[in-house]
Amino acid sequence: MARSTEVERLSPLAPVYRAGPHGNFEDGVGVALSEPRPGSIVQLAAWPGEERRMIDAIRTVAGLALPDGAGGGVTENGRAAFGFAPGKFTVIDEKDGLAAAFAKAVTPAIGTVTDLSHGRTVIRIEGPEAEWVLAKFFAIDLSPPAFPLGAGRSTTHHDIFAQIQRSGPDRFDIHVFRSFARSFWTALCHGCEEVGYEVA
Amino acid sequence: MLITCPYCGPRDVSEFTYQGDGNRQRPAPNSQNLDAWNEYVYDRLNPAGDHNEIWQHSGGCRIHLRVVRNTLTHAVSSAVAVRGHHGGKP
């Protein structure tokens, strides 16, 4: 993806992104919000029966060993991967060029590679109240036994489709469609007001 | 109402889309049996009790599911992937 390095990427959150503390932060901030802006977001889909070879390709190209099981994932050295559907995986890299690397390793016999680097916006929420805030938006079990470190979940907030990865004990990365990102960010900020939040 | 997706686990029904009666048998595309087509398009069992249905987890992993739902109680007694070979593993 040499071309993507030539394009200045603009954040859809820019008009509403206000750095600093907000809401009820007098007693401390409950969560920190930020936009990680990874260089690469790639979606991989294995044909039925080719799941194992796709997982092998993720290990070879990204150096990430996915755990077995539905929604299993891992974060390591600025890269992350998780399953979001049967045979389908999202892989993220801080740097550009991941889609081109996967295009070489994932042959047409294994599955497909879709470069979503410009199509998704990642919103990070971190802090002791992150589970509490996200529980207002998503009807899923966010507790660590049900949603372990590294795991991914596909869900929706009303009609806004979201993939969520737990990237830390109290940190979640929420992938939303770029066109919905500003709306979701605004709603998330409202949801964070009661616990106090800081925008990085 | 919760549907337990074989990949995602129990999720609220709002994440799912009803895809229709799971009892229908589509005639062969070149079939000229009008009774069979009429049955496929119009006839429904409409039972008061367990009903075979097709749902899609459209607000999640997007797989299609065969669901058995009780039309009296909304209890879901079974939800399996239409494509059987995934079985919850990636």
Q: How far is it from the N-terminal to the C-terminal residue of chain B, by CA?
A: 26 Å
H and E string of chain A: EEEHEEEHEEHEEEHE
The CATH superfamily of the largest domain in chain A is Probable tRNA modification gtpase trme, domain 1
What order do the helices and strands of chain B follow?
EEEHEEE
CA radius of gyration of chain B is: 15 Å
Structural class of chain B: mainly beta
Oligomeric state, counting identical vs distinct chains? heterodimer
How does this structure look, described?
The complex is a heterodimer of chains A (200) and B (90). Chain A is α+β, with helices and mostly antiparallel strands. Chain A folds into 2 domains: 11-37 and 119-200, Gyrase A, domain 2, CATH 3.30.1360; 39-116, Heterotetrameric sarcosine oxidase (Alpha-Beta Plaits, 2-Layer Sandwich). In chain A, 20% of the residues lie in helices and 34% in strands. Chain A contains 4 helices and 12 strands; from the N terminus they run E-E-E-H-E-E-E-H-E-E-H-E-E-E-H-E. The longest helix of chain A has 15 residues, at 178-192. Chain B is mostly beta strands and 90 residues long. Chain B has one domain (2-81): Folate-binding fold, CATH 3.30.2270.10. In chain B, 10% of the residues lie in helices and 37% in strands. Chain B has one helix spanning 34-42; strands at 2-5, 9-12, 17-21, 50-56, 64-70, 76-81. The radius of gyration of chain B is 15 Å and the shape is globular. The A-B interface holds A 48-49, 51, 55, 66, 68-72, 83-89, 139-141, 146, 153-156, 161 and B 6-9, 11-12, 14-15, 59-63, 81, 83, 85-86, 88-90.
Keywords:
heterodimer, A: 200 residues, alpha+beta, five-stranded antiparallel β-sheet, 20% helix, 34% strand, B: 90 residues, mainly beta, Folate-binding fold, 1 helix, 6 strands, disordered C terminus, SoxG_het (chain A), Sarcosine oxidase subunit gamma family protein (chain A), TrmE/GcvT-like (chain A), SoxG (chain A)
